[in-house]
Amino acid sequence: xxxxxxxxxxxxxxxxxxxxIFLGLTAAGPALADKSLVFCSEANPESFNPQVTTTxxxxxxxxxxxxxxxxxxxxxxxxxxxxxxxxxxxxxGLTYLFxxxxxxxxxxxDRFTPTRPFNADxxxxxIERQWKDDHPFHKIGRATYDYFKDMSMASLLTAVEKVxxxxxxxxxxxxxxxxxxxLAMPFSSIQSAEYAxxxxxxxxxxxxxxxxxxxxxxxxxxxxxxxxxxxxxFDRYWGGRQPLDNLIFAINPNAAVRLNKLRSGExxxxxxxxxxxxxxxxxxxxxxIQRREGLNLAYMAFNTRKxxxxxxxxxxxxxxxxxxxxxxxxxxxxGGRAAKNPIPPIMWSYDDTIQDHPFDPEAARRLLAEAGYPxxxxxDLWYPPVARAYMPDGKRAAQMIQTNLERVGVKVTLVTxxxxxxxxxxxxxxxxxxxxxxxxxNGDPDNFLxxxxxxxxxxxxxxxxxxxxxxxxxxxxxxxKRTSVLDERAARYKEAQRIFHxxxxxxxxxxxxxxxxxxxxxKNYRIDPFLxxxxxxxxxxx
Length: 542
Hints:
- The protein has helices at residues 15-23, 56-62, 120-131, 146-150, 153-156, 179-183, 193-202, 255-264, 278-283, 312-321, 324-332, 361-370, 394-406, 419-427, 446-453, 471-481, 486-503; strands at 36-41, 70-72, 79-81, 84-89, 95-100, 157-164, 167-172, 218-224, 228-233, 246-251, 269-271, 287-293, 296-302, 336-338, 377-382, 410-415, 433-439, 506-519, 522-523, 538-539.
- The protein is α+β, with helices and mostly antiparallel strands.
- The protein has 3 domains: 1-63 and 216-268 and 521-542, D-Maltodextrin-Binding Protein, domain 2, CATH 3.40.190; 67-196, Dipeptide-binding Protein, domain 1 (Alpha-Beta Complex); 296-513, Dipeptide-binding Protein, domain 3 (Roll).
- Strands 1, 8, 9, 10, 11, 12, 13, 14, 15, 16, 17 and 18 form a 12-stranded mixed sheet that branches. A 4-stranded antiparallel sheet has the order 4-5-7-6.
């Protein structure tokens, strides 16, 4: 990670004073004149380049830094032009012409000062690095471009061409209904070709992903692992200077510690409060809670390439052995609803006619015996080490599943790892069963059904943690994305959900209501459907 100024131990005082210490502010300006918001984050980012990571923690850390050709209207799933001033699409849906915004500048740091505004070269660089094996930055660092691969972008793209400095033409091999929304996702962020060239010339290309340069509303200052990420407002931001001067991510995996810091004023906003604390937070006169039904899903993935989980009867038996309602009551309190499908119920094309598999331990035993396991078997269950929007307490959920399964003869060993390693090891298929989840990236069912359950993402390193490739399912989700007729897409996605229900590569657990706790002095913050967005957020001086 980048070299960083050593930051004094944080949280030695409250309010604005703590921000001054935390930021290492100097006599160059009075501390009280700066508006500084501290966000209590739950984990370290893997990288500051969203092209090379897939976790929400890393995406949140990258989001203040970058822009995309297309962007989501803050707090919604509506897609509008971003770094593209405008665009046109050919009648056959294969050619997209983007007219780029002018006078957009990249950030600077100690190694690099841009000599030109953003232009078409940056768009080509940002796409081709992920796409072309012979691109000079393709093999730099630990980049594996899992998102790009899981979405089959390599086979989708035919050409990305610079028409002139302010016009880019992208040609697709087939129609792709979610394409514009996909361009608004973090992996499609636009990065500086000039910065990459400067680092390559200096012999330090690995710094590209760790000392980030973007066009976003905030620019990177420093990162100290397990402590803090620091950003400052970018004065030349094309969308206008931010109300905040400084943004700080204070890192602590413990929700109780984050809540204590919020109450004391040492941070201003936190995610993933423990559900049992929500009623108390509601009564605190200095705090408010924002809630939103989440575009998310928690699930337990079965590694279908390992026996006995390669047998759908075994997977269904495991599902019938789990008391889902009791688990949700214990883990989510009032903040979750039972899941039965691989997409959230607030998403279009959700098939509510599907009946969830019942909780029936006796039927589970009979099905295990039919599959050849009358005495059960031993298996591992992996659980996430940190709270997520979709799963507030993975360990407790795993313990309850362990107890349920042992009652039908399945002996369960619980396994976990540090968050970054946990995700990496699941992607490689090391697990038997694993608790994971997903928060949608673009409001389209494709982002769940194809990205998480498609054949391309079942590869080692891919995000299909069931390692499941079903030709009938694949046919439906692929055909759905190749038409722009919404009714046809919805019908195919409903058929895909029926196939999923029968084959059960996951055990769907719950959809969480997303809660964010913040201090009353934070203004103009709203829960985003996807990530934590601080553009436009302000804070009242205390």
